[in-house]
Amino acid sequence: MQLLDRSFDVSTTPVAGATLSLEAIRGVEQFLFREARLLDERKFAEWLALWTEDGRYWVPRFHDQANPFEQISLFWEDKMLREVRVRRVENARNWSQQPLTRSAHLVGNITIEGLDAAGHLIVRSTLQLTEWRIDQRQLAGSVFHKLAATEDGGWKIVLKRVNLVNCDDVFANLEVFI
Amino acid sequence: MSLTTEALAAMVRDDSVHKRVYTDPEIFALEMERIYGQAWIYVGHESQVKKTGDYHTTRIGDQDVIMVRAADGKVHVVYNRCPHKGAKVVPDGDGCTGKFFRCPYHAWTFKLDGSHLSLPLKNGLEGTCYDPANPDFSMKAVARVDSYRGFVFASQSAEGPDLKTFLGGVASSIDNLCERSPVGEVEVAGGTFRVMQKSNWKVFYENLHDTMHARVTHESSFVAAREEAKEIGEMPFELLIMDGNGEPYEFWEKLELRAYHNGHGYMEAIFDPAAATRDPVSREHFAVLTEAYGEEKARQIMGMNRHNTIIYGSGSPHTVFQQFRVIRPISVDRTMIEIQTFRLKGAPDAVFDRALTYANLINSPSSNVMPDDVEVYKRCQEGNQTRGGDWVSLHRYLGTDKETPDGMVSTNGTSELPMRNQFAAWKQYMLNPAKTPTQADNKEADRAAA
Ligand code: FES
Ligand SMILES: [Fe+2]
Predict the structure, then answer these.
(1) How confident is the model at residue B269 (pLDDT cuts 50, 70, 90)?
(2) Which residues lie at CB < 5 A from ion ligand 2?
(3) Helix axis angle, B417-430 relative to B201-208, nearest 10°?
(4) B328 and B340 in contact (C-beta within 8 Å)?
(5) Alpha helices, H only, B180-218
(6) How far is CA B10 from CA B3, B18, B381, B398, B427, in A?
(7) How far is the CA of B81 from the centre of ligand 1 (A)?
(8) Are residues B280 and B396 in the same domain?
(9) CA B200, CA B209: separation in Å to the nearest integer?
(10) Tell me, what CATH number does B126's domain have?
(11) Which of A157, B226, B336, B356 has most Cβ atoms within 10 angstroms of its Cβ?
(12) Total count of domains within chain B
């Protein structure tokens, strides 16, 4: 089972520095803004295409959680599970998405952290997220993206880790990606 | 007050229940006294308080309590209130208080069973009734505490059946959960989810054995899982556990619903002898259990194919995937679910991996399955506040359930027997005014705990 593959590197601590041109940094920032915008616009098919085949989406349950293998997670999803989530929220009989969840992601404080062991770029940002479905709620936290460079000069997501400030709190359902 | 015994009795009929039981805050307040003030309620598992001074806070109905491990190994449950000015002695959550409790306000201290230890500047209390033995100077212990195979329950009433009698036939689900470990022991592991539902607590209990809702409410998730399986050409575990809700009506009709006294019960599929050898994880598990118990018993343990079990007032253990959804009423229209996952001591790691995966996929706030449940519960809560009718139907297969020596069993798996059984218990509790524990009871409990 792919989700249990403990060799997947979830660490977000860089092992090497990264030197990017200003233009390349702007490219990374635009990539993050666009990713957030696809979620806000519920363009899930396009959002799914931002990922590598092997990419993982992780929202830990605990602060400083070491890995998703020994403890529960708010989200721990591979390609298959991301696709299932999209299929569900887009199903016509998605009772809990009537009305739909609406969101506004505000992404800021973007910093290039360095490279991981496989040479993926580690990028940190801060997220403020307003979500509405009947009730409005605020979510916030730090986000780590690990990005793989593509041949055409773009990026794909290898890991997106969202550290919510209230990760260990009581939650109403989290139906769409953060 | 409008809630006379007659009025309460009239709310539960054989085939229906008055909607007020879900929406009236006065009834909720009375439930906290008469159900949560009397029944044995699951507080937590002993493994959550391993060492001396380890504590875990939770709620028995509307009461904040602390489960704590004392130096002699005993587990105590005390109200989270300092007898001086009433401050909560420990913050909500888990922690270790050391050899004694110390209130953060004026430093009164208490032993780990709640009894008074000391306070600063005692001379200021000279000439008063201050006496460490006077219960007015101690944290109050919940009237009765007992544990069944490591599962700690407490009752706020000094009277009533003992824990084993209270659990009756449903204890067999706890047995089966424990026996899935080769050493017969489990521990809470991997963390706990807490999920809020905007509905009355009873709605969730009723839904647990509501087999008629699965393929209707959960269409979005089982269809999503099936579409995905088709696309990738296989149905791995993660999808399989979402797919089950899509079984046709004939499948649900064949299940057996067991109902026991006090509102308990479980849902059982026909004994599944193949369960032990179906997939690599089960085969590995089966081998370990065979070594511990012998092949026949091991096959029996793994073949006990229980879906949700109901321990009314406490929640729902799931034996096959080692979960316990603990149900905590917050208010008449808010319910909090604490989801615990268990590690089977001595079982292969892959079994725990599977339990964690199940928790993440099915029981977490991000579950693809649960939101549709939570949505329909909320719709019941809101619909029942309209003037569009007063009664909630419990008619399905009424009069066809069979008596067994220790309860009832359905003749059809879509019977609303479990709901009728829960309301029979509800009525019994609600017509029986709770005896507020007296000081004498407390002393009794202190002696028993000593
Ligand atoms: S309130 Fe606890 S010592 Fe005063
Ligand atoms: Fe359901």
Answers:
(1) confident
(2) B 373
(3) 140
(4) no
(5) 201-208, 214-217
(6) 10, 8, 21, 18, 9
(7) 9
(8) yes
(9) 16
(10) 2.102.10.10
(11) B356
(12) 2
pLDDT band at B439 (very low <50, low <70, confident <90, very high): very low
Ligand approaching nearest to the C-alpha of B368 = 2
Q: Check whether residue B120 and residue B173 sit in a common domain.
A: no
Residue B24 lies in a domain: no
- The reply to whether B359 touches chain A by the CB within 8 Å rule is yes
Residue B114's domain comprises 41-148
CB contact under 8 A, A84 and B371: no
pLDDT tens column, B64-96: 999 999 999 999 999 999 999 999 999 999 999
In a domain, A16, yes or no: no
* Residue whose pair of structure tokens reads 């649900």 in the numeric block: B252
Q: Residues lining ligand 1, judged by CB closer than 6 Å?
A: B 82, 84-85, 87, 103, 105-106, 108
B377 to chain A, any CB pair closer than 8 A? The answer is no
Would you say the ipTM is above 0.95? yes
CA-wise closest residue to A81 among A105, A58, A109, A61: A58
Instruction: Please determine, for residue B444, whether its predicted confidence score (pLDDT) is greater than 60.
Output: no
User: Does residue A13 belong to any structural domain of this protein?
Assistant: no
Same domain, B75 and B209: no
Look at residue B413 and tell me if it is in a domain.
yes
* CATH code, domain carrying B200: 3.90.380.10
Residue B88 exposed, middle or buried by CB count within 10 Å (0-12, 13-18, 19+): middle
d(CA B107, ligand 1 centre) in Å: 6
Are B445 and B337 in a shared domain?
A: yes
Residue nearest to atom 4 of ligand 1 (CA): B106
Q: Any idea what the CATH number is for the domain that residue A125 is in?
A: 3.10.450.50
Q: Indicate the residue of B194, B224, B365 with minimum beta-carbon distance to A88.
A: B224
Do B142 and B249 lie in one domain? The reply is no
Asked if A121 contacts A153 with a C-beta cutoff of 8 angstroms, the reply is no
- C-alpha span between A49 and A41 (Å, rounded): 15
- Between CA B141 and CA B153, with CA B147 as vertex, the angle to 5 degrees is 55
- Does the global pTM surpass 0.90? yes
Indicate if B338 and B227 belong to the same structural domain: yes
Residues in chain B with CB shorter than 8 Å from the CB of A99 are none
pLDDT tens digits, residue range B205-236? 999 999 999 999 999 999 999 999 999 999 99
* CA distances for B233 relative to B81, B112, B378, angstroms: 57, 57, 36
Do B352 and B223 fall into the same domain? yes
Asked if B195 reaches chain A (Cβ–Cβ under 8 Å), the answer is yes
Contact B118, B131 (CB under 8 A): no
